[in-house]
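Worked Example 4.2. Consider the chain below.
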Amino acid sequence: MTVQSKLSHVFSYESWIHAVSGAAGGCIAMSTFYPLDTVRSRLQLEDPEKNGEARSTVKVLKEIILNEGVRSLYRGLAPVLQSLCISNFVYFYTFHCLKAIAVESNSKSKQSALLDLLLGSVAGIINVLTTTPFWVVNTRLRMRDIAGTSSEVNKFYTSLFSGLQYIARTEGVRGLWSGTVPSLILVSNPALQFMMYEMLKRNVVSFTGNEISSFGYFIIGALAKAFATVLTYPLQLVQTKQRHRTSKSSEDKLSAKAKDIGMIEMMISILKFQGFKGLFRGLEAKILQTVLTAALMFTAYEKIAMLVGTLLKRTPNTVN
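Applying the procedure from the previous section yields the following structure tokens:
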């Protein structure tokens, strides 16, 4: 394949449509199920010694509404949507560019689940390295003004941009990329998700011989995300604690110490103080939020891509 041919895929019309559709679909889905993500963050960062047994998603939702008001469920939504839009655009764009190049280089690779996993991992690594600072700020913005946080620190987390400036000034580059190691390992999550999604989609189309309905995309997306989430959840828990790393921002001993310990040490500490269950603290809320969000995202993504392609008289090939 020539350099010009590769560049034509990198700057292709189809890749842009997939990227825009993925970004839009992600924002629609996150806006719909954001309260569940707020609950997930609270459960992951709370101190089990203070709160006792893990609380249910419904119980935490009720507590937030009664004690802080409904608006607290949507705290930090704007910067999350900004970051998600950038993140999904980068991921979908990179994934489809790489896939187009790989398929042209080897026509047999089109139906390879292993190739989908590999390309998803590469796209995930690029995404992590470029967007981690946004997610670090998002984690801290969401935990503003809750019990145990410092009002002195909170005043600097008023927007995505102000948060980035504050962390860069006080913690440097290392602070902006907090939790990058587990994030790089966690590229397996979207990679596994995409692999399972595409495999299920191909099998459904092959078995039925018909176009998949919106409900079908929703179910396939939900199954794919549930599969990836359960396998990688302990790393996601560690990632959240490391991103929220500051002794002034939490009473949770593990979060307070996250600044000074690495990923493996953090996991060992969780096992020591909280047991095996501690590695899956907040999983219920995470499953509800990510599965529903991913399912709606894939449904919106497929439909938006088809709609844009139809309107422009040039429908791109969706994920196969």
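Residues 36 and 288 are 7 Å apart (CA to CA). The longest helix spans residues 13-45. Compare this with Example 4.1 before moving on.
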